[in-house]
Design goal:
mainly alpha; 2 helices; elongated
Length: 70
């Protein structure tokens, strides 16, 4: 019973890590898009803030689960 729980934890920890990496890339890509714009665009700024919020939410969850990226 215990090794099934550990196996599930490892599996979902790996999914969390891969999701963190993809949201990190999405966040940095939205920062680059915002820097390339010449004028003020509220939609782009909103998208950047949403990507940042998603990434830091997952970061906090990883900290609670005591997951370290290698």
């Amino acid at each position: 019973m215990f090794f099934k729980k550990n196996k599930l934890k490892k599996e979902f920890d790996q999914k969390l890590i891969s999701l963190m990496r993809s949201t990190n890339e999405e966040w940095h890509q939205s920062i680059r898009v915002e820097e390339l714009l010449d004028d003020y665009d509220l939609d782009v700024m909103t998208e950047r803030k949403m990507a940042e919020s998603r990434h830091f939410f997952l970061f906090k969850e990883a900290k609670i689960r005591k997951i370290s990226l290698k």
